[in-house]
Design goal:
The structure holds two protein chains of two kinds. Chain A has six helices and no strands. Chain A is mostly helical. Chain B is mainly alpha-helical. Chain B contains 14 helices and five strands. In chain B, strand 1 and strand 2 (114-118) form a beta hairpin. Classes of the chains: A mainly alpha, B mainly alpha.
Chain lengths: 175, 438
């Protein structure tokens, strides 16, 4: 059952990801993106990471993508996308970024046997189950986030704040 | 003595299937009769009769409406984006019908095959599941507005997306206060914590409840927040081009959202299926056994589920939910619509900072109480009730002075000036009794 669902979600996620790149209208790209995000959330649920799945849908699919849709519809309607397609040096840059990302992913996938990502699946699942029962689905994530990783967490928050301030400064009419 | 065992896998699947079917059917029927309730209540408020011809008291009216919508002609605007035009209503109705699954309906029911939880899916993320799925509802509205290729529909869709984003923040922040007090995100545990506190969360978190009601009104696009379909400005907004069953699907989606929001208000703030004062209905799964509380030594007291308790608690839940559905209808036919900039102002400049400040206040109060060693119980709740009560009165005092929601031309300021000049004239008249003009 889990395997069937995993394959289903994985196919939809990958298909959606290709759809984002290949479709000709921005709105279609966006919907493909939402499908991908939702499928990845489904995979999170299969891994018992319910909280992550909920946040994925709530934040990415439900909020950020709606904002994207808003911007696309408000600003880009009837706008010819062809002028935005960049070739030459830009495509080379894109290729480099894609290659680097693939390298990082490959490193995580094949070289991770000693970093704790892989272990006895049943034992990890049992420990996770016990922790969820003890602290709740949100507590399991919140505890390390606000103790071990609190500095990184706050810095991320600061980064978002910087982006917001920058957006406000840019959007303000020049007087 | 009742069976206290949990269900075997086989019976779990069978009973889950039955629960899904039953809840879906009841929700759809409730939605149908909410349309009738809306029309009858609006008629009552406007001193009319409302639909009363089809069946006794018009009770068969929703069936007649449904049939009419099924056999009406479907129109398809020639210039619409066909695929998205059809996809829109489907996307709108999907999240609306699945969110009810995570709401606990009654105390666990004892059956010959084990004790059955009266909830379709007790997901560990509870409220987050509902928030996540209802945040997807806006896609249906935005897409259909865009796909209609009609400027009014399009404006409706744009408004819907802006409004949903704005009020989702306030809604989430008002829920955070509840999460702080309940200490968990599952709705079953929230009901349990309210039973343990001896107070429904509406008392210790009164301001959060007010924020929740306002944001839920905005999230469901109901008056006074029905910007996306404001018919005096946008014809009917995003569903202008829709007819027959596709139009009906938007309708069903809206009413399902209203039903879910009402059930959430009942669950988060009014104890869910809890019957007030009586503690005999307190029930919770604790380490594989149903308990009704802890004795002074901290040992769990086992609970005895019974069909009677389940029925009574189900009744309590339905009564509370029905009240909030009525509140929705009552508000819709009492208040006029906001202007669009007022909606944005209220969401971002009033509700967001106020909700943030309130969270800090509640968290601070809870920290002090925990430091003082006050146990989680009635005293704990009453202190929070006092703090929240003062804050709520202060907030209502602030918001009720047309500083926030002023009329189109700042009528409040005009009225004050008029009042001042009238007082000045009166004083002049008093100091100058012979009426001579100086």
């Amino acid at each position: 059952m889990t395997e069937i669902l995993f394959v289903l979600f994985a196919v939809v996620a990958l298909g959606g990801a290709f759809g984002v790149v290949l479709s000709r209208t921005p709105v279609a790209s966006l919907l493909f993106m939402v499908a991908t995000l939702a499928s990845v959330a489904g995979i999170y649920v299969l891994f018992e990471a319910h909280f992550l799945a909920a946040i994925q849908v709530l934040v990415y699919a439900g909020a950020i993508m709606v904002l994207f849709l808003f911007v696309i519809m408000l600003l880009n309607l009837g706008h010819d996308y062809r002028a935005d397609l960049k070739y030459g040096l830009w495509s080379l840059l894109g290729l480099v970024v894609a290659g680097l990302t693939a390298g990082v992913l490959g490193q995580a996938f094949w070289g991770a046997s000693d970093t704790g990502f892989r272990g006895d699946g049943a034992a990890v699942a049992a420990a996770l189950d016990a922790a969820v029962r003890e602290q709740g689905a949100a507590g399991v994530i919140a505890e390390p986030l606000f103790t071990d990783y609190v500095v990184a967490f706050e810095l991320m928050g600061l980064l978002l704040l910087v982006a917001i301030v920058a957006a406000v400064v840019l959007a303000k009419p020049k007087t | 003595m009742h069976e206290m065992n949990q269900l075997t896998t086989f019976w779990f699947w069978v009973i889950s299937g039955v629960k899904v079917l039953a809840v879906f059917t009841v929700v759809m029927l409730a939605v149908a009769y909410m349309t009738l309730a809306e029309r009858r209540v609006s008629a009552f408020i406007q001193d009319r009769l409302g639909p009363n011809r089809v069946g006794p008291f018009g009770l068969l009216q929703p069936i007649a409406d449904g049939l009419k919508n099924l056999i009406k002609e479907e129109t398809m605007p020639g210039t619409s984006a066909k695929f998205y035009f059809v996809l829109g209503p489907a996307l709108a109705i999907m999240p609306a019908v699945v969110t009810f699954a995570a709401i606990p309906l009654a105390a666990p029911l004892p059956t010959p095959v084990g004790t059955v939880d009266m909830i379709v899916a007790d997901v560990p993320i509870g409220i987050l599941y509902i928030l996540a799925l209802s945040s997807l509802a806006v896609y249906g509205i935005v897409l259909s507005g865009w796909a209609s290729n009609n400027k009014y529909a399009f404006l409706g869709g744009l408004r819907a997306s802006a409004q949903m984003i704005s009020y989702e923040v306030a809604l989430g922040l008002s829920v955070i206060a509840v999460l702080l007090l309940a200490g968990n995100v599952t709705l079953t545990e929230m009901v349990w914590q309210q039973q343990q506190l001896g107070l429904w969360f509406v008392f210790p978190l009164s301001l959060a409840f007010i924020f929740f009601v306002i944001s839920a009104l905005a999230e469901t696009n109901r008056l006074p927040f029905d910007m996306p379909e404001a018919e005096s400005e946008l014809i009917t907004g995003y569903h202008t081009e829709y007819s027959a069953m596709k139009f009906s699907m938007f309708f069903i989606a809206e009413y399902s959202h209203v039903l879910t929001a009402s059930a959430l208000m009942a669950t988060l703030f009014f104890g869910g299926w809890d019957i007030p004062v009586w503690t005999g209905d307190d029930m919770f799964w604790h380490e594989g056994a149903l308990i009704r509380g802890f004795d002074d030594a901290g040992a769990p007291i086992p609970a005895t589920p019974s069909i009677l308790i389940t029925l009574l608690t189900l009744g309590a839940f339905c009564t509370k939910t029905a009240f909030f559905v009525f509140l929705y209808i009552w508000i819709r036919w009492t208040l006029p619509r906001f202007r669009y900039d007022q909606v944005m102002h209220l969401g971002w400049k009033v509700l967001l900072p106020a909700a943030l400040g309130y969270i800090v206040l509640i968290a601070g109060t809870m920290l002090v109480l925990d430091q003082l060693g006050v146990p989680f119980g009635l005293l704990y709740g009453l202190v929070l009730t006092g703090v929240s009560g003062v804050t709520t009165i202060a907030f209502l005092f602030f918001i009720d002075r047309d500083r926030v929601i002023a009329g189109a031309h700042g009528m409040g300021a005009v009225a004050r000036r008029r009042e001042a000049s009238r007082a000045l004239l009166a004083r002049r008249a008093a100091s100058n009794p012979d009426g001579s003009v100086s």
